[in-house]
Amino acid sequence: MVRYVAMAMLFSMLLAVSVCLQAMPGMQGDPSTLYRGWSVEAGLPQVSVTAMAQDEQGYIWLGTQGGLARFDGHQFTVFNTANTPEILSNLVTTLYLDSNKRLWIGTVNGLSYFANGEFTAVDAASFEMGMISSFAELPDGRFFIGADQLYQWHNNQLVKVSEHQTAVFQLYSQDDILWVGGQDGFGRYQSQQYRWYPAPDATEAIQVTELVVRNNMVYVGTNNGLYLWQQGRWQTLELPGSSPGSRIELLYLDQQRQIWLSTVEGLYQIKSGQVTQVPLPRISGQPFSWVESMLEDQHQNIWLGSRTHGVMRLRSALTERYSTSEGLPDPYSWAVMPWQRHLMVGTSQGMALLKDGQFQPLLANQQLPSLFVYSMLQQQDNLWVGTRAGLSLLDNNTLAWQKNFPQTAHLLITTLATEQQRIWVGSNGGLYKVERGKLNQQGLSAPITELSIRAILPDSAGRLWVGTESGLYLRSSEGVFSPVLDIPLAGKFISVLEEFADGNMLVGSFDQGFLLGKPGNWQHFNQQSGLPGNGVMHASLVNDKLVISNFEGFYRLDYPALLQGKVNKLYMLVDDRQPEAVTDSHRCCNGAGSNKGLVHQGRIWFPTLDGIIALRLDRLNSYAAVPIPVIESLTALNQQFDGDSATLSPQQRDWHFRFSAPYYYQASSIDTRYKLEGYEQDWIDAGSRREAFYTNLPPGDYRFQVQVKIAGDYRWSDAAAMDIVLKPHWYETITARLLLLTLFIMLIWLVYRLRLASLANAREELSRQVTQRTQQLYLANQKLQEMSMQDALTELHNRHYLDVNIDAMLARAQRNQQPLTWILLDLDHFKRINDQYGHQLGDSVLKHFATILQQHSRSNDHLIRWGGEEFLLVLEQSCEVHHYIERLQQLVHNYPWQQQLGAPVTITCSIGAIIQPTDWDWQYSLYLADAALYKIKNTGRAGHMLLQAGPKAPASLSSVDVKADLEELLERKWLLANRGKQLTEA
User: Fold this and answer.
1) Out of 137, 296, 632, 869, which one is annotated catalytic?
2) Is 869 a catalytic residue?
3) What pTM does this model have?
């Protein structure tokens, strides 16, 4: 309840002005007339609106004492002597739209007209017209101007009408008759015949400033009161509430043949010969008064122009309002319920019965625990009433009070429902039930006994649904209420539960949209689906229309489309979302309980913060007029174009369109969209923006189109269109382009021929360079291959050399039946040389050692730096290997190291070698040579060990077959070792 009351208080502040208004008759005496006013704060140039006219496009033109204004419902465009020299004075006295669609502008200093987007001042240099008072046009096209005398516009010139040569204060046309108001009487001009009707002799000097003719009766408004002239007789008409002899500011005959008139004191209507005063609302705290101009627009709205308060528009609403003026005890309405053929309304001051258009408060209000009535329910002879302070029971036949339920005095009763003979009572403090006249919570358990209940629905399948502020609950077959969690609105504020005749249910929420369907097959709709708002206060299904109300108004939806999951044909019947809705809408809706709307007596009813409103069901399919878009202008390179078409020069490529939609009800809610055919395919949504920009457009033919619609209406208007031709530069013409294309083709051909010759030369040069580069690349690759297998320091081969060539070595050994010999040489105490003399000397030792090997090896021997100070020799012809090893050792020993190195060093080497039998694994053989080397190094260095296959050695041997070390192989006699020490110097 707190949330509803808070929202109600907010709406009450917005409605502070409208709540106090009395019902005001409209064009046909409609008590639901709505209004809106505009003055200088909205852009009107001055508060005095002396004249009004509406053109064919729908713009309202307003003449003021500060210039001329064109109004589209959204903004005023002002024309005055400062920006429009053709307007001869800012004091505009009269306006008229003739049959040629020209807008005539009369001022205190001359005459102008507006046609085809341009203003023109009428040249009257040959005579002084003075102030222009009025215009009139006869069916034959003759057009008359009233000024210092009577004039006719003939062949685009002013011509004096000699029959009336004195001042003219008013002109009025009736069929082929021109009535002329003048000093002390009026004239009648017909078929070139003129007759003057003087005022009664007894009257003071009068000026006939207003004339209206109806049923052969001439109503004459003067500076000295209102007269009726009929069959040559003058009759004075008294105005109620007005001083005798008050000046008549206005006489106006509307399309319903009703006569309106005004004085400084007020506005009046003449009905059946009787003059009645029309109450006017207050605008900005002041009464709207001193009406001196009037207009009935294309949609039958009445416009009133005031000398002191700007302009007001009156319109008949689609809905009807019944409030305090009809006897409602308080404007705040919370609940509506049918009672017999009448309507029961719950307000903040009790209950009232709407009967024959008038409210009758109930005597039972005095016994209610609270005058705030939020919910009502009829059950046979009982009328249950839920208030802010508990539950009451009335007699449904006599409406007499019977009893209250004190145990609910602390509760706000939000909703009531009947299930067979049981009454379910929802409150802000849990769910209750009434059985046999007793209220209790027996058989109910938490949390349903503690939650704030908002809606109760016993459906046709025997299920009981309960909507709470914390989600939806369903009663099980055991009577236990459990939350419904498999829905999109689980845990949300459930405000509405309805079941329709087709068995579908609607579950509405306070601010999360609604569900439609059946258990297990729900469809969720919210603002993202296209709804105007997420709140749901009440829902009614009327034929194929679903009507939903909320705080922003109420709208209708196409029900069959909803069943297909689509929001279609959405239309706001009452839209309160715009600021002007304070006075220009019936402001819907309200309610805190289970009676927030109903269909009754051919109407759909809603409680509001100002009484109740009703919409006749025959108006449920009604539509407001669709706004008509207008393309006002196209500006390109400081030149402005209007009309249906424009031809632009090649330089005018940046375009600025201005467009509008003259509409005078919720104009700020108009949505616009546009597109430029020839440039874009899709519509551009512009919202409320009324201009469009394009830059750097290419030449061509275009069509600019604009559509508009009201925000609460799904219908887009027909498109307004403007055709534009943008001429090309000379170089963009077809001829120029063909010439340029020809030149381009010739240039391409010439370039092609030159290119062919160049390519032929280049091909020869390329062939030569390819041959040269191929040879260079081959040599470079060979060099790279050699470098990849060469040790950089000693220029001997490296390990990669062995990886690349081992297969070839083995193949040759197999083919030649010559075993390979693997000789590993290691420099003794080399680390000591590095540590004592440095790595530079150590590198020099390695180079000299490599030189010794190169100088004393054969061309088919393979010399490899195996790593660090270790070298590998692979001999493919293995004869005299033992002597070769001894000679190498002797050469190393006898080498002049001290002379070559400049250091007192002596170099010896240790050697391990093996003559590999043909079918032995070479890697295992290399392993055995390494083992022999380390055996020498571990037994004194400077020696050698040569291994050869023994008599018991197997024919083939690899590391996979044998796991034994060197000692074991020697012991098995698989290998024989020939050892020797470093020889002495020769």
Assistant:
1) 869
2) yes
3) 0.71
